[in-house]
Design brief:
Strand order of the largest sheet: 1-2
Number of strands: 4
Low-confidence stretches: 5-13
Distance between the termini: 61 Å
Helix content: 40-55%
C-alpha cells in the first residue's frame, strides 16, 4: 500500500512543472533579486500607479525616527477603536514599537499604524500628520499624498 502511494505521489510530482510561476494579478509588478539587484521578472514596471499602503509605510518610517523599536507604546483609545484592523488592540495596552511595526507592515493593521502615529507624536494626531508630510517633502515625494 505504501509503495503504491509513493508511486502515485512521484507520478504527480513528475507531471507538475517544477518552476511554475505564480499567477500575478496586478497592473504592474517587478521581481528583483534583493542581494544582487538583478531584475528577474517585470510587467508594466514603468507605469505610474498609486502605491498601496503608502500611508502605513510613511507612518512606520516617521515613527521609527522618533521611537526606539524596543520601546513600549501605550495603545490609545482611538487606535483600539479602529474597526477595519487585522489585529485586536485594547486601549491602555502596552506593546513594543517593533511589534506594532510588524503588524502594520506584515498584516496591514490599521490599529497598529494608528498606535505608532500616536506614540510617535506623543498623542497628537495633527502633529504626526505634519511630520509625515514633512518627511514626504524631504524625500522629494511631490506626487505622494500622505
Amino acid at each position: 500500500m505504501k509503495l503504491r502511494l509513493l508511486a502515485a505521489l512521484a507520478a504527480v510530482l513528475a507531471a507538475s512543472p517544477a518552476s511554475a510561476a505564480p499567477k500575478i494579478e496586478a497592473r504592474a509588478w517587478l521581481v528583483q533579486n534583493g542581494t544582487t539587484g538583478e531584475v528577474l521578472l517585470r510587467h508594466n514596471d514603468r507605469a505610474r500607479l498609486p502605491i498601496a499602503s503608502i500611508t502605513k509605510l510613511m507612518t512606520v518610517l516617521v515613527a521609527l525616527e522618533r521611537a526606539d523599536p524596543d520601546e513600549f507604546a501605550v495603545v490609545s483609545p482611538r487606535a483600539a477603536a479602529v474597526g477595519e484592523s487585522t489585529i485586536e488592540l485594547a486601549a491602555g495596552e502596552r506593546i513594543k514599537v517593533l511589534d506594532l511595526v510588524d503588524a502594520a507592515l506584515s498584516q496591514s493593521a490599521t490599529a497598529a499604524a494608528n498606535a505608532l502615529a500616536a506614540h510617535g507624536a506623543r498623542g497628537s494626531e495633527a502633529r504626526f500628520v505634519e511630520l509625515r508630510v514633512g518627511k514626504a517633502r524631504a524625500l522629494a515625494l511631490g506626487v505622494t499624498h500622505v
